[in-house]
Write a structure and sequence with these properties.
Two copies of one chain form a homodimer. Chain A is mainly alpha-helical and 131 residues long. The first copy, chain A, has a single domain (37-130), classed as Arc Repressor Mutant, subunit A, CATH 1.10.10. Chain A is 69% helix and 11% strand. Chain A has helices at residues 5-23, 25-34, 38-45, 52-58, 64-76, 98-130, and strands at 50-51, 80-85, 91-96. Chain A has a three-stranded antiparallel sheet with strand order 1-3-2. Chain A starts with a helix and ends with a helix. Chains A and B meet through helix 1, helix 2 and helix 6 of A and helix 1, helix 2 and helix 6 of B. Chain B binds a DNA duplex (20 and 20 nucleotides) through residues 7, 14, 36, 51-53, 56, 62-69, 84, 88-92.
DNA sequence: CGGGATCCCGATAGATACTG
DNA sequence: CAGTATCTATCGGGATCCCG
């Protein structure tokens, strides 16, 4: 007899679905841009290249660890470039690639939707909480 | 003398910036749509109203807890409606509101960007990993 | 200046079991 | 059928220290 079929089949479905979701480009992108610091970094760099410490200052509250981690993953995905200028002390600049700029424009669309509809959402929320 | 000024001022900045980020509509929206299950639920409901268990089946791998949690928060934000039909057994339907449908369209834009650029991202990633 | 390495903690997802 | 309650393991993220 087949044992624990229910649980196993559920687990099976979960694994398959997880794989599907991870392979879905849309969800990959959502995972990326939803990172707390990504949108802030992209937004900051949209104005032009910037040094590591300038970014850290502009995005107040980010820890060095998270800033580096965020920059590395964005660099890996080809969204920005990292330029090291050997000097004393070392100078490192970050700059959006065309792909990164393109992503910034998408973020613009998200921003537009947010600003256009945030009122409705807040109203709905207040109404829901009141009842 | 002022003690731990550096740490305290950093903490202060962090708190202020956190508040700013949370109040930013764009980040609120990003937080919302980046939730692992939100996009899946919105996408599923885009085809029309659906029952709780149908959603659970369509979105294989979601636990009842997370499904309920997701649906509640979306309802709270006015993105979908919850309709209870008293019968035996009870029947509960979920359906996108116009606002929810509008959000679905935004997700479409995200999807378009993702599908158009995922190749570039993957290439950049492979190249980065190779070096 | 621009990080890497390590430790640690709170939040949270999910499994499981139960209920009206 | 449509959830709720509880418990646990994991893990992202920050603090801290150190290096080139």
């Amino acid at each position: 007899m087949a044992t624990t079929t229910a649980a196993q089949r559920r687990e099976q479905a979960r694994v398959e679905y997880d794989a599907f979701v991870r392979n879905c480009p849309t969800n990959q992108l959502l995972d990326r841009i939803s990172d707390k610091w990504v949108s802030l970094v992209v937004c900051a760099l949209a104005e032009g290249r910037m040094r590591y410490s300038d970014l850290g200052r502009k995005i107040a509250g980010v820890s060095p660890k998270m800033l580096t981690q965020t920059l590395r993953s964005l660099e890996r995905d080809g969204l920005l470039t990292r330029t090291v200028t050997p000097a004393v002390p070392v100078r490192v600049d970050y700059e959006l690639t065309p792909l990164g700029t393109s992503l910034f424009h998408l973020l613009g669309a998200v921003k537009d939707w947010a600003e256009a509809h945030i009122e409705q959402v807040n109203e709905a929320r207040d109404q829901y909480d009141a009842s």
